[in-house]
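Researcher: Next sequence.
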Amino acid sequence: MAKYEAKTKQTELSPEGFIAAMEDGSRKADAQVALKWMSKVTGLKPKMWGPSIIGFGRYAYTYDSGHSGEAMLTGFSPRKANFVFYIMPGYEDQAAQLARLGKHKLGKSCLYINKLSDIDMSVLEEIVQDGVAYMRKNYQTWDE
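Model: Next structure:
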């Protein structure tokens, strides 16, 4: 059986350069705000994960199948369709926070919004900090 290799890995690309190369407009402006905001909220340095995800910190995981690897603790991607925040443990215990957040949609670990002005950033801060705290408590993590 071929060894699985994660598609989303930390790269040497610059998050600032990635954002600077985006088409001018509200998505780029939101990305610039989110980069500074996430750095402040997490206290971590941003790194690119793959070609379009800006991640903060990293953690090690091992699945029941034996597959193991590393991923970011939290992050975001300013995609064209939606702005995505990655909250790695998901949202099982965050119903009250999500009810106060504003306009959003959820995936398993993805929080989709149209623009930052659609949500309450102080509530998002709670969600991001809770997610990072959970990951630090339950996984081996690195602040790089």
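Model: The longest strand covers residues 68-78. The two ends are 32 Å apart (CA to CA).
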